[in-house]
Amino acid sequence: MDWTSGYVPLDEQSVLDFARPFLDEDPLDATEIGDGNLNVVFRVRGATSSVIVKQALPYLRVAGEAWPLTRHRARIEANAIDVHTKLAPGVLPYTIDFNEQMSALVLEDLSEHVTWRESLIAGQVLDGVADAVGRYSAAVILGTSDLLLPSRQRKVLRQGFVYSELCLVTEDLIFTAPYTDAESNRYDDETAPLARALQHDRLLRSAAAEMRFAFKTRDEALIHGDLHTGSVMSKAGDTRVIDLEFAFFGPFGFDPGVLLANLALSRLAHEESGNLAFCRVVDGYAADYWAALMDETKRLWNPAEPWYARFLSQFIGDAARFAGLEMIRRIVGLAHAKDIDSLALPARAIAQSRGISGGRALLLGGTVHTFEDLWHRAVGEDANP
User: What class does this enzyme belong to in the EC scheme (predicted)?
Assistant: First the structure.
């Protein structure tokens, strides 16, 4: 087929022909992989080589054709990988090709890697992953901000990453839907009273609205936009960050907040399962991520700047509030954290309740000034303010 003449949804048969030019030999088979909410992803294998083909669908996959989306997110992801690779070499997947008409990326196959979320659920220790992601976060946050990037270059870069359709999805699913009776919300019957209480919590709704405004208006850096533990893949000695289709110019604290929230939910799941030793591992992951983020920030930006301390204080405060919102939406919103959903009752219901309490503590418990305070509120027994 002529893959430049127009968009055709790929399947396990047609993707063989599409991927043929990028393999060292004829393709043998293709398998749809992943459980993404947005796109279709195939692994195409030949006798000695393989590639990943990721295609944007014209709708939100997790919601079906009733929630249409443009396919421009594929171009956003291709461009974001390019920008972030320059700032954090070796952390992003290698892009082999991008087909604009097909809205499809051809990427290196990370078949030996596992997602951080899956390793967390399995209780598998991955050394170095938190440190690598922390340094990546600092590199892309500072490297695309006015702190390091000349204003003229930044202005040009921003034109390619405007507030996108996927930003509207984030705006709805994180900041709005969990606090309304939205059709996209889903939760267990046991959690229904907590979900309904969110809709009548005026303080919480006000805090969510305030952070929604920050998300929409504070174009501080070219952030990943969806940096949860399922967006990180790792094997011994090698960590990669994937799925950059949500990338846009947004607040400094959003990516760190989302990642720490997902680590906190993982810890709650292990605690309710009785895996207390692995809880200590997750505590270490969270602390290592934040320490690496701060160390790299100091390396890249002069800590002698007069307002450096105030910058860091706002950074951690914003990260805490975004973390709170992410924790809540992963319990009652459309896309859940598998860490907790995979638990059996009653442990799942207890973890869900604690996740909501932790999120509320981060949003309403006063300004967070330290990582230790953030983490304690997120996972502490007395998280409810």
Answer: transferase
CB of 178 closer than 8 Å to CB of 207: no
Host domain of residue 369: 114-379
Q: Is residue 384 domain-resident?
A: no
Residue 267 sits in a domain of what CATH number? Answer: 3.90.1200.10
Side-chain-side CA neighbours of 241 within 13 Å: the count stands at 35
Domain count, the chain: 2
Whether residue 118 sits in one domain with residue 88: no
Residue 9 falls inside a structural domain: no
147 and 30 part of one domain: no
With the CA atoms of 13, 18, 80 and 127 taken in that order, what torsion angle do they form, in degrees rounded to the nearest 10?
A: 60
Are 239 and 366 part of one and the same domain? yes
| pLDDT at residue 35 in the model | 66
Please report the pLDDT score of residue 385 as a whole number: 32
CATH number at residue 84: 3.30.200.20
The CA distance from 354 to 275, in Å, is 16
Residue 28 identity (one-letter amino acid) = L
pTM: 0.95
CA separation for the pair 312, 323 (Å, rounded) = 16
